[in-house]
Specification:
alpha/beta; seven-stranded mixed beta sheet; 7 helices
Length: about 240
C-alpha cells in the first residue's frame, strides 16, 4: 500500500479591522454669510459644526477626529466639544491660508500609523451615517474616494463675456461633496509630487492630478454645504422632513 504524505496547509488571516480618522475643516471666513460665523449658526437648535461633529462621533468606523478651525474660534470649539460630549476629538488646530493648507495642518496631527482619513466640511451638518460608511468601505480597496450626486440642472460652458460656448452633457456629470477619503501616505506623496496645491478645490482633485484613480460613492442631495442664509432655511426644511 502506498503511503500518502499529508501536506500541511495553513493560511494567516488578518482579522484587524481598518480604522479611520476624520479631519473636519471649519476654518473658512464665512464671507457669504456677512459677519456671521456659519459654523455657529443653529439648525434645529444645534450649532452647524456641532451637528457635523456629532455625526462622526456616532460613527463606529471613525476612531479619531481632528478639528481644524480659525485661531479665534479654538476656545469656542473646545466648549462645543464639551457641551456635546465629542470624545473622539484628539486635536483642535488652526487652519491655513487656504482649505488645502488647513487640511495639511490636520493631516500633520494624524498618528503615524494612520492609513485612512476622511476629510469633511464642517459646514455640511446633514451628513448621514450611510455615506460615511460607504466612503470608509470603498476606501479599503481604493486610494481616493468621494461621495457625489448626479447633476440635475442643464450645464452650459460660457466665455468671459457670458456667451454660451456649448451645452455640456449632464449624463456623465456629478456634483462632488464631502466626506472625501484618502490613503494618508499616498495623499502626502501626491502633495509632494504636485508641490503647489492652493489652487485645488477639493482633496481628491490632488490625488487625480498625481495620477491616482478617484472612485465615487453615492452622496445625498440633503448633504448640503451651509454657505448662504438660504442654505440654513433649506437645511431646516430637511430636518423637519425627518422629524415628521
Amino acid at each position: 500500500m502506498t503511503e500518502t504524505k499529508h501536506k500541511l496547509e495553513y493560511r494567516i488571516k488578518n482579522n484587524k479591522k481598518a480604522e479611520f480618522s476624520a479631519i473636519i475643516v471649519s476654518a473658512g471666513n464665512s464671507t457669504r454669510m456677512g459677519s456671521v460665523n456659519k459654523q455657529m449658526l443653529t439648525i434645529g437648535g444645534i450649532e452647524v459644526v456641532a451637528r457635523t461633529l456629532k455625526a462622526f462621533e456616532a460613527n463606529e468606523n471613525i476612531k479619531k477626529i481632528i478639528l481644524v478651525t480659525r485661531a479665534d474660534d479654538i476656545f469656542a470649539m473646545q466648549m462645543l466639544a464639551q457641551k456635546y460630549n465629542i470624545s473622539k476629538i484628539s486635536d483642535i488646530v488652526c487652519g491655513g491660508n487656504s482649505r488645502q493648507e488647513s487640511v495639511l495642518n490636520g493631516v500633520a496631527r494624524l498618528d503615524k500609523t494612520c492609513n485612512f482619513v476622511l476629510i469633511h466640511d464642517g459646514a455640511r451638518p446633514l451628513i448621514s451615517q450611510e455615506i460615511i460608511n460607504s466612503v470608509c468601505k470603498k476606501l479599503e480597496t481604493s486610494v481616493a474616494v468621494t461621495c457625489a450626486v448626479k447633476v440635475k440642472d442643464t450645464i452650459k460652458q460660457v466665455d468671459a463675456d457670458g456667451k454660451v460656448i456649448k451645452t455640456v452633457p449632464r449624463e456623465d456629470l456629478v456634483a462632488v461633496q464631502t466626506p472625501q477619503g484618502v490613503r494618508v501616505h499616498e495623499y502626502m506623496r501626491a502633495v509632494g509630487k504636485i508641490g503647489e496645491i492652493s489652487g485645488f478645490t477639493d482633496d481628491t482633485s490632488i490625488m487625480e492630478a498625481a495620477g491616482h484613480e478617484v472612485h465615487i460613492v453615492e452622496g445625498s442631495y440633503k448633504n448640503i454645504k451651509i454657505t448662504t442664509p438660504d442654505d440654513v432655511i433649506i437645511a431646516e426644511g430637511f430636518l423637519n422632513e425627518v422629524e415628521q
